[in-house]
Amino acid sequence: MGKREQAQSRIELLQGTLDLIILQVLRWGPNHGYGIAQQIRTSSNELLQVETGSLYPALHRLERRKLIAAGWDVSENKQRVRVYRLTAAGRKQLVAERTKWEQLSAAMGGILNAPREAEA
Questions:
Q1: Within a 13 Å sphere around the CA of 99, how many CA atoms are in the beta-carbon half?
Q2: Considering the chain, what percentage of its residues have pLDDT values greater than 90?
Q3: Where are the domains positioned within the chain?
């Protein structure tokens, strides 16, 4: 698939979905913003690409809600980076959000896979 086709096939995220994705990525371990964006991209087979204009406001929102915490660290290439980690409240929120997402997914599957009703 070429870059143009990839760009056209990217999926727009539902409002609130980015928060769930970030919490899930941080469940895998602490990471900085660029690393989070890379994990989202690679884990989604390049379908989801989060721009910095969406990622950092989401990170700040999650931090204000105490679902993630941040601290300064030094990256592999010796640059100072802000590293985010999941808090206990964030883990609890992740479980709740995953449950909601699984219910929504099952409901959508039911609708999309339902046999077509006979027309009157």
A1: 6
A2: 77
A3: 3-112
What does the angle CA 82 – CA 88 – CA 99 come to, to the nearest 5 degrees? Answer: 110
Look up the CATH architecture of domain 3-112: Orthogonal Bundle (1.10)
17 neighbors 98 (Cβ within 8 angstroms): no
User: Which pTM value belongs to this model?
Assistant: 0.82
Strand partners, 68: 86
List, for residues 10-53, the tens digit of each pLDDT value.
Answer: 555 666 799 999 999 999 999 999 999 999 999 999 999 999 99
3-state secondary structure 47-111: CCCCCHHHHHHHHHHHHHCCCEEEEEEECCCCCEEEEEEECHHHHHHHHHHHHHHHHHHHHHHHH
